[in-house]
Amino acid sequence: MHRSSATLIIKEGQKPLDKVISSINGIILGKEPVIRLAIACMLAKGHLLLEDLPGVGKTTMAHVLARSLGLDFNRIQFTSDMLPADILGVSVYDQKKAGFRFHPGPIFSQVVLADEINRATPKAQSALLEAMEEYQVTTEGETHPLPDPFFVIATQNPSNQIGTFPLPESQLDRFLMRLGIGYPDSDAERALLKGCDRRDLLRELAPAMQAVELRTLQAEVSKVHVSDTLIDYIQALLAHTRESPLYRHGLSPRAGLALLRCSQAWAMLEGRHHVLPEDVQAVLPSVVNHRLQPSPENSAQSSDDLVSSLLNTVPVS
Amino acid sequence: MNRTPAAEIPLAPSTIKLLLVSLALVLAPHLTHLPILISLFCIVFGLWRLMASTHGWPLPGKISRLLLTLLVMAVVIMTYGTIIGPDPGTALLTAMLGLKLLETRRPRDAALVITLGYFLTVTMALYSQSIALAIYMLVVILLLTATLIKLNQFSSHRVGSKPIRLAAKLFLQAVPLMIVMFLLFPRLPGPLWGFPPGASSGTTGLSEEMTPGSISNLGQSDAVAFRVKFDGPTPNNSLLYWRGPVLWATNGKSWTPGPRKSTHPTGYPIPKRVPVPQRVQDGLVTMGQEVSYQVTLEPHPHNWLYALDVPTSIPDGAMRSPDYQLLANEPVMTLVRYRVTSHTRYRMDNLSPDDRQQALQLVAGSNLKAQAMGRKWRSEFSDDAQLVQHALSYFHDEHFYYTLKPPLLKGDTVDEFLFNTRRGFCEHYAASFTVLMRAAGIPTRIVTGYQGGEANPVGDYLVVRQRDAHAWTEVWLGDQGWVRIDPTAAVAPARIEKGIDSILEESRQGIFNYKLAGNVWGQLRNGFDVLNNGWNQWVLGYQSSLQNQLLASLGLLTWQGKTVGVIFGLGLLLSLIAGLLLRHQNARQDPVTAAYRRFCYKLARRGLARAPTEGPINYADRIVTWRPDLAEEVVAINQMYIALQYGENPTTSIMRRFYRRIRAFKP
To answer: Quick one: which of A13, A28, A43, B470 could link to A265 by a disulfide (CB 3.0–4.6 Å)?
Structure first.
């Protein structure tokens, strides 16, 4: 990524992050912008939705993220016959204790990869999404806290495929970012074809950071300075989506908060202690594109068009 | 990306409805004068378009539209015989607008329709120029603008508020411009286009022919003829004779100014032009105080200017006929305002032999009984004045009644009136009195005009309405010259003393309690008339002469001066508005942003403008790429800007350095 000489102010706290990024870069080739956004999402304590065609490396990406951040990892393959208990866990009668004992489901992990989330029925989907929001699981009157940090990285295929249950808007909103991965460019693809199996590399990958360090960085994100001028800019962006007839609905206050937190995380990744309009612009497409729909008169526009028109319309300060 | 251009997106039904509503409002005032068929066509086309958008009715194809166009043209040509001129033009424009609706599918078409709508709104002014219509036009323009805004809303990215609010805002911003254009836009003397005859309210004025017995409902019209503002106190009601055309000739039934003068193309004689002082002296001896006043005359189809008997000064661009009527050079097609002075005490001493012959003219063989009575009186009285007195007491003592609803007269109308019906109004009395006098050998002429007027206490001026129209006579009494004799006064003195309202009041009393309702009504009407008068004085009356006065008072006399003045005035106004808007914008900026803007501006002049959505780092990077020589300076300024604008603790020392470097910055 091009960074200008004008702003190269590297801070000490950024070094572990650089290490994380470079170690992921070694496995997922030529996708640094996506990796940085994914890390920003995790620094902002948000869940991530990866949406792309099969085979572009969604699962690998999720796995590598967990691994290099030193987090434990569970994968749930969503299917259409899946039940909530298959995700959350189940209470089984224990004869020795003469009572029910809770067997935690695969969701009890620091990073959960919810693979092909749109293959499951809405019932199973909502069990996962509730846990994402509450950071805890409640079954049969008992509440079980989820580990900290806790991330869900869901993947989904573009929803026009047969036999899928697209996530409703309200549930898309639970994901802080939606990212596409896209095809690698030809150099990266060549390196991929010539190199060794990614799974082997993954097994050998050493964590670049401990979970405790990640928690500290997460706490620091919220301390990245946000000036009034920047708040003005974010408010102008939100106001535009609410007033312009291009959009069916404007962005919610929750979306505004999400945008702010991601911008702070991005500023930290850039090694700054304050947020600049560029940070907002960098994260805005991923934070906003799953939350904006075109208005009925304007249905020909894709969400990418909407986002770029938002960015190209609202002036900075 | 296959984005559809905004102009090609089909119109939303809500936009179509708004468009149709605004067009219906445009059409409404035209319904009164458009051919019924054209109005019907437009309504049908509008409804058709509505059904097409709500119920999916098909719109006509190319051939049907062509046929409809030809049909509409045919209707216009059949109605007017031409398609040129204000009336057929308006009809054609309206019809074409209706037709255009049938092929309005996209915003581009709708924008054209709205433009036509604006134009059609302007044509309303061809038919009336009242305040009410002006307000209505403003509302229509507001609505059309709102429609235009709504039309463009989903194609434009920057939309602030609801269309009607934005339209109102735009409208208010345009008001200063409107005022300046109103004051300075070059005005031609006379209307730009020829008003069709009867287009203005001129149909209700006096006519140049008087036929007693032919009308039975005079005096009912409340339409304003003119308004008068006196410099001093208003003269007594019995002196308020507003002089109009003087009628000399009769054919036994009708009275006209007569053939004694050469005839103007419009049908009215032009008097000889003589220099002013001579005209003022022209057989006229004035006595007592002069009365000066200003008249605002409503449009009417003749070139008569009304003035208090007898005018002794002549407004610019007017002249005075030998029988003391003021005449404009052109028919009074638009509202005119003029200052006159009159003397209510005077002697008119001019009677040429020609005049004498005219003033004695009678039709042999008509109104024989009246002529016989006139001759009989002559034999009884040798003194003219006594004879006149006798005639007046005849009207007073015999059973003559003043009524505004006289029976129609047939045959020898004067005989019929004098010896049979004996019910009539001023025309009857003036005409029969003149016949009697002429038969007795006393030169007599009929003067038409207005008598009295209603004082408007709110605005302190006098309103003369069409129902104040009057006819009286002047008789030649040798040594006294022409003497005004009003035979109506002998019958109904109240008509002259108190004005026609006293007569009208009686005839209205049967309907409802006029006095009680009249008080409230009168108040309202006076107030409203003040409004109308103001409108007339300051808006409609603002014609080329007044504009010239205004420009002259600004020292702009020549047309070059005026042009420069207009351009300068507009430029000043526009830069004032721009300045205000920019100041408004700057006022919200803090000094750091303002300084940064200056920095950006300096770079913009070197072709390195900042895109409005470009953040500071991206901008600095771009400049450094393009102009590496500026790198050091730009990077330093940019770092300071970021620290000040987005940093955690901006210090005043950074701020001072920031300002200094921006001032010194010379790309």
So the answer is: A43
